[in-house]
Amino acid sequence: MSAPVLILGARSDIARACAHRFAQAGHPLVLAARDAATLEADAVDLRLRHGVTVDCVDFDATDSAGHGAFVDALDPLPAVAICAIGAMGDQLESQRDPVAAAAVFRANFEGPALILGELAQRFEARGTGTLVGISSVAGERGRASNYVYGAAKAGFTAFLSGLRNRLARSPVQVTTVLPGFVATRMTEGMDLPARLLAQPDEVANAIFRAVEKRRDVIYVRPIWRLIMAVIRALPEFVFKRTRL
């Protein structure tokens, strides 16, 4: 039997695509999200389409006190955990309302980092496993249009980097995924360049390959590596004049 895969934030479009990609390869799945009963239609489809075991479990990333009990209840402990938790939020609202900003920080940094940290402890003790964190190119440099979301993703990217460095001498793999623009409900209505816009299935395939090859950091579309290198290299006095 293929190794079980845990998908956190299983209601997102990228998470759904990942579920189908790993199920297609024969992996049993655990889908985790708030109000897990709403995942059952997806679970039925996955079971019928791919013939794999699919369990749905309740999980609230913002309930950090409950993370340990959540991981303890996973039986068996998954071989792969994919964290697709996140929320764009609204930059203008976050600028005006610290409660809204805090929610963006919790959804994109605090919750994902803490649950992957909890899983890392168990994977390290067992001596095997792969942790996948879906971050964002928005975290590579703060931009006026989304700096609250970007700051949260920057924190998550740094956390994954540090976790990977800590576990470098163990068999546990930590993979950071930087998708760039993806055609999802989160980006619906945005005017995004088609050449840079990946589909959820494209992201899922990239993640599947990254897990197989034990990759450290992946840009789903390689052009993003160049774009972000240019943006990071801009001197601050030039960057301040941009409208990004």
Describe the structure.
By secondary structure, the chain is of the alpha/beta class. It has a single domain (5-239), classed as NAD(P)-binding Rossmann-like Domain (Rossmann fold, 3-Layer(aba) Sandwich). It is built from 9 helices and 7 strands. The chain has helices spanning 13-24, 40-50, 67-72, 91-96, 98-126, 147-166, 200-213, 223-233, 236-239; strands spanning 5-8, 29-33, 54-58, 80-83, 130-134, 173-178, 217-219. It has a 7-stranded parallel beta sheet, with helices on both faces. The longest helix is centred in the middle third of the chain and has 29 residues, at 98-126. The termini are far apart. The model has no long low-confidence stretch (mean pLDDT 94).
Distance between the termini: 47 Å
Quickly count the domains: 1
Widest sheet, order of strands: 3-2-1-4-5-6-7
Mean pLDDT metric: 94
Secondary structure tally: strands: 7
Shape: globular
Write the CATH homologous superfamily: NAD(P)-binding Rossmann-like Domain
Rounded radius of gyration (Å): 18 Å
The helix tally amounts to 9
Uncertain residue segments = none
Could you say what the CATH topology is called? Rossmann fold
Any chance you could write out the topology, listing elements then pairs?
Elements: E1 5-8, H1 13-24, E2 29-33, H2 40-50, E3 54-58, H3 67-72, E4 80-83, H4 91-96, H5 98-126, E5 130-134, H6 147-166, E6 173-178, H7 200-213, E7 217-219, H8 223-233, H9 236-239
Parallel strand pairs: 1-2, 1-4, 2-3, 4-5, 5-6, 6-7
Helix pairs in contact: 1-2, 1-7, 5-6
